[in-house]
Design a protein that fits this description.
The structure is a single chain. The protein is an alpha+beta fold. The protein has a single domain (3-84), classed as OB fold (Dihydrolipoamide Acetyltransferase, E2P) (Beta Barrel), CATH 2.40.50.140. 20% of the residues lie in helices and 34% in strands. The protein has one helix at residues 67-84; strands at residues 15-24, 27-32, 38-42, 55-59, 62-65. A five-stranded antiparallel sheet has the order 3-2-1-4-5. A hairpin with a 2-residue loop joins strand 4 and strand 5. The longest helix has 18 residues, at 67-84. The radius of gyration is 14 Å and the shape is elongated. The termini are far apart. The relative contact order is 0.20.
Length: 88
């Protein structure tokens, strides 16, 4: 994991909306939803139960799963998937 990608949430005040993409070793790799930039957090900084595909909100140095945004995102992706593979 490239150390430059890692974010120390204690030292940075930010408001971000991220999608948790994957886990690499001790890091959670996320994509910032507006810019598509990749950032990584130490897994210990994530809320319990955070999973790949979850929408994470970072506000004031705290990370939490945005359950409503995660559900909406998954529903939108499911509809796109169904449309793509629809039998005519």
């Amino acid at each position: 994991m490239n150390a430059k990608m890692c974010v120390n949430i204690e030292s940075e005040v930010m408001a971000l909306n991220l999608v948790l993409d994957r886990f690499e070793g001790q890091y959670a790799v996320c994509e910032e939803m507006e810019t598509q930039k990749t950032v990584a957090f130490a897994m210990e900084d994530l809320p319990p139960g955070a999973a790949a595909g979850d929408v994470l909100a970072v506000e004031g140095g705290h990370i939490f799963v945005d359950a409503a945004a995660t559900r909406e995102r998954r529903e939108r992706i499911q509809k796109l998937f169904e449309k793509l593979f629809a039998q005519d």
